[in-house]
Amino acid sequence: MDISVFFEPLNLSEFSFTEGLSAQSRLGSIIPVFSDARDFPDYTSFDIALIGVKDDRGAVNNDGCGLAPDRIRKYLYQLNTGPYPIKIVDLGNIKNGFSVSDTYFALSSAVAELITNNVVPVILGGSQDITFANYQAYQGLGQIINIVAIDPMFDLGKSEQELTSQSYLSNIILHQPNYLFNYANIGYQTYFIDQDALKLMKNLFFDTYRLGIVRQDLEEVEPIVRNADMLSFDVSAIRNSDAPGNENATPNGFYGEEACQIVRYAGLSDKLTSIGFYEVNPKLDPGGQTSHLVAQMIWYFIDGYYNRAHDFPFRNEEDYLKYHVSIRDHKEDIVFYKSKKTDRWWMEIPLQAEQRIKYQRHYMVPCSYKDYQIACENDIPDRWWMVYQKLM
Asked: How is 318-357 classified by DSSP, letter by letter?
């Protein structure tokens, strides 16, 4: 598929690079950029592709976030690469369509093509409704997926509401055919959520994690993110003092370094195949602090990606320790696997052979040592139970 028709080239004169002895190690000197309309890059030879989306017609109380992609690039290009060779390409910005649905189509087509060629798209938004377009790409691939959102709200909106940055999730849930297996929200703030929305999340067996609980033990975020196929990061999940460039920013949220850690977990995940960063508003960020933070978050994602251990899916059972834990009044043992390479844990959901084929990417559930300890104390881990109910 020729996706070049969806992109507009970047004007490199708008970006400045810091001169100095280490200039050649900066990302801006290493990453090939689509800057000549006659020469679209051969993305198939790269690992990661940057895609800007300057459409903010779906933004709620945050007009101006469409300016973010190039502002983020300004800071990203000035960062030095890590101690590994990188194969990253910048494909430029998606052309804004006549309608926002045209932009969605262009992005979903491009993302599907990249994933098909084993290239991970990193989307620089734009408003968070673009997450819906990212999701549509997997429909084209016929892939049942898990979505993780870092967001202070669930973005369900109302059933009759048009698709916006605060209603995209309900559109994903109601979309037919539906390819969503699980949705997980990390960092919601209870005072922004009505009780009906919490009940809906519970009834759908979706995973929701309050900000305060997550921040008590950030390492427990890792298995949640490791289970994602795509991740959507709303910058309003970061506290205003660290990321002021967002009309919906509030006093509470993640610290900048916590946001970087979460995104690095995403990079480390063998399963994750796309990620998006949304709602950065340069109009409210005159010092560039928010754009600079998101650039560093992308750096951490890249660092995670190039440190992937490739221990999932399982290739050789000898590379794992297998544990059977008996639970009182539970017919079958809960089976755990621990990677000898990374010490990461998984739980196995018991399924018939035909179901294993259908849900081959979902019956092995990422977990932590804490889940194993819970099972050893004769209790069923919540992660296991939630997935079991979905599959049964």
From this structure: GGEEEEEE--TT-SSPEEEEEETTT--EEEEPP--HHHHH
